[in-house]
């Protein structure tokens, strides 16, 4: 334990995902030694990210305006909706250049052990959207891991009630246990074009 603000900084950093106590300590001492201007820049970016970033009212993606660029783009096919866990997954699918539809960002995956149930995700919004818009296909592109599969299975069951709606899942071949974002463009593109009906 260090004294005062240094320990506070280590504690705060240690609460970030993927940062263990050793990394938190290393980053804290890096910041202590850094130029004041560098620390100020980091501080400003952190501030802005909470003040300036909004989430699209339609799809839940990170957005600069009420509606994100993709939802505003009339060239994107509104009849196909790709459901992903996080905004970073939108980027991963976009990188494949295989998809011309719209997205729906859930905000995570079902994980009962961590207290994430259907109400913690944007599932109600998805169902409302499918009921209100002319959606013909929903692609379940949750991560190829236990939580992602459980979420896809749950959604497939919920979506069964919509007449005329096709529900598809990314083809297998994605590295199991990983995040969508870790798949390379080619693999993810193939999984997308080879998606199978559920
Ligand atoms: Zn959007």
Automatic annotation (TrEMBL):
<dbReference type="GO" id="GO:0003677">
    <property type="term" value="F:DNA binding"/>
</dbReference>
<dbReference type="InterPro" id="IPR000093">
    <property type="entry name" value="DNA_Rcmb_RecR"/>
</dbReference>
<feature type="zinc finger region" description="C4-type">
    <location>
        <begin position="56"/>
        <end position="71"/>
    </location>
</feature>
<comment type="function">
    <text>May play a role in DNA repair. It seems to be involved in an RecBC-independent recombinational process of DNA repair. It may act with RecF and RecO.</text>
</comment>
<dbReference type="Pfam" id="PF21175">
    <property type="entry name" value="RecR_C"/>
</dbReference>
<dbReference type="GO" id="GO:0006281">
    <property type="term" value="P:DNA repair"/>
</dbReference>
<dbReference type="GO" id="GO:0008270">
    <property type="term" value="F:zinc ion binding"/>
</dbReference>
<keyword id="KW-0863">Zinc-finger</keyword>
<dbReference type="Pfam" id="PF21176">
    <property type="entry name" value="RecR_HhH"/>
</dbReference>
<keyword id="KW-0227">DNA damage</keyword>
<keyword id="KW-0479">Metal-binding</keyword>
<comment type="similarity">
    <text>Belongs to the RecR family.</text>
</comment>
<dbReference type="Pfam" id="PF02132">
    <property type="entry name" value="RecR_ZnF"/>
</dbReference>
<dbReference type="InterPro" id="IPR023627">
    <property type="entry name" value="Rcmb_RecR"/>
</dbReference>
<protein>
    <recommendedName>
        <fullName>Recombination protein RecR</fullName>
    </recommendedName>
</protein>
<keyword id="KW-0234">DNA repair</keyword>
<dbReference type="InterPro" id="IPR034137">
    <property type="entry name" value="TOPRIM_RecR"/>
</dbReference>
<dbReference type="InterPro" id="IPR006171">
    <property type="entry name" value="TOPRIM_dom"/>
</dbReference>
<feature type="domain" description="Toprim">
    <location>
        <begin position="79"/>
        <end position="175"/>
    </location>
</feature>
<dbReference type="Pfam" id="PF13662">
    <property type="entry name" value="Toprim_4"/>
</dbReference>
<keyword id="KW-0862">Zinc</keyword>
<dbReference type="GO" id="GO:0006310">
    <property type="term" value="P:DNA recombination"/>
</dbReference>
<dbReference type="InterPro" id="IPR015967">
    <property type="entry name" value="Rcmb_RecR_Znf"/>
</dbReference>
<keyword id="KW-0233">DNA recombination</keyword>
<dbReference type="InterPro" id="IPR003583">
    <property type="entry name" value="Hlx-hairpin-Hlx_DNA-bd_motif"/>
</dbReference>
């Amino acid at each position: 334990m260090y004294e005062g603000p240094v320990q506070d900084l280590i504690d705060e950093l240690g609460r970030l995902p993927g940062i263990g106590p050793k990394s938190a300590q290393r980053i804290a001492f890096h910041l202590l030694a850094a130029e004041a201007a560098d620390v100020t820049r980091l501080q400003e970016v952190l501030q802005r990210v909470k003040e300036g970033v909004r989430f699209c009212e339609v799809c839940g993606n990170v957005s600069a305006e009420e509606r994100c660029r993709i939802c505003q783009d009339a060239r994107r096919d509104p009849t196909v909706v790709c459901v992903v866990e996080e905004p970073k997954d939108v980027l991963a699918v976009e990188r494949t250049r295989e998809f011309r539809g719209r997205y729906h960002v859930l905000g995570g995956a079902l994980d009962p052990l961590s207290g994430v149930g259907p109400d913690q995700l944007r599932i109600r919004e998805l169902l409302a959207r499918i009921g209100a818009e002319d959606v013909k296909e929903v692609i379940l592109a949750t991560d190829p891991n236990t939580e992602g599969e459980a979420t896809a299975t749950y959604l497939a069951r919920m979506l069964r009630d919509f007449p005329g709606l096709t529900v598809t899942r990314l083809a297998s071949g994605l590295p199991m246990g990983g995040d969508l974002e870790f798949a390379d463009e080619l693999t993810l593109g193939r999984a997308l074009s080879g998606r199978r009906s559920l």
